Amino acid sequence: MILNGDAIQLNYGGFVPLSTVDWRGRSVCTVFFRGCPVRCTYCQNAAILNGQDFREIDEVIALINGSKLAISGVVFSGGEPTMQKDALIALARAARNLGLATGVQTNGVFPDTLETLIKDRLLDRVALDIKARWARYNNLFGGNYVKNVQRSLALCTEAHKNGALPEFQVVVTLFRGYDDEVAIIASEIGDADLILQQGVTESVPPLSEKELKNVADGLPRRVLIRTREGGEIVYESDRSRRASRKR
Question: What angle do CA 21, 22, 26 make, to 5 degrees?
Fold first, then answer.
């Protein structure tokens, strides 16, 4: 595939030909993009945050096509897929041409990429990681990221509201001692689906499913809870049910 006379390449991080956990309700393949400017100490894919393994886009499209009979969508993950704008747009468009739904897992620090994908109707789903309340963001990650993430949130919220983005979820990876941040984040995300994801590090015991449910009990909304032990479940507290009846 050619852009402005040059072959588009992907700094490739890996490929899963069939996944039933990366997109609830779908069987998908997952393409991993290498590289990410945000250095989360708990990243599950730390091995692909650095380094180079450049592949021609057509090679990656062939991998997706090879999974087509078993899947209905493609998830682009990383690393940070929106960091490689041209490669991501080319792959999303190729997936569309193959009749597949497209989703991206992103930290939101490259909103221009998301804006183009949404404008060109190349996305069916965005999973946006929001890693902390805004006041703590830049100090936590050592970079000036908060304005970009806020813009990504605003873009996806508006696109979801007007139908340009069918599915939008915000993922909060929660660690012990930061329970109070969830209500603050939840108040900022509109009608996006909220996922509370169990944070795992070597230094602090992870929150259990029961403890995550206790956090969700304080929210007037349904949440999805994701743990290593129980996978992903839908959880609706009494408060959430009461709020739903009032709407």
Answer: 75
> Whole-angstrom Cα distance, residue 197 to residue 82?
21
Q: Which numeric CATH code is attached to 2-174?
A: 3.20.20.70
Three-class secondary structure of residue 48 per DSSP: helix
Q: For the chain, 247 residues long, give each residue's pLDDT as a single digit of tens.
A: 555 446 899 999 999 999 999 999 999 999 999 999 987 878 888 899 999 999 999 999 999 999 999 999 999 999 999 999 999 999 999 999 999 999 999 999 999 999 999 999 999 999 999 999 998 888 877 778 899 999 999 999 999 999 999 999 999 999 999 999 999 999 999 999 999 999 988 888 999 999 999 999 999 999 999 998 889 999 988 766 666 666 5
Q: Where are the beta strands (DSSP E) in the chain?
A: 2-3, 6-7, 9-19, 28-33, 54-56, 73-78, 101-106, 125-129, 167-174, 193-198, 223-227, 231-235
Q: How far is CA 138 from CA 12, 35, 247, in A?
A: 28, 19, 36
Q: Which pair of tokens denotes residue 12?
A: 């490739």
Domain definitions of the chain by residue range:
2-174, 182-247
Task: Give CA angle at 158 (116, 85), nearest 5°.
Answer: 20
Compute CA 108 distance to the chain's CA centroid, rounded to the nearest angstrom. 9
DSSP track, 59-87:
HHHHHHHHTGGG-SEEEEEES-GGGSHHH
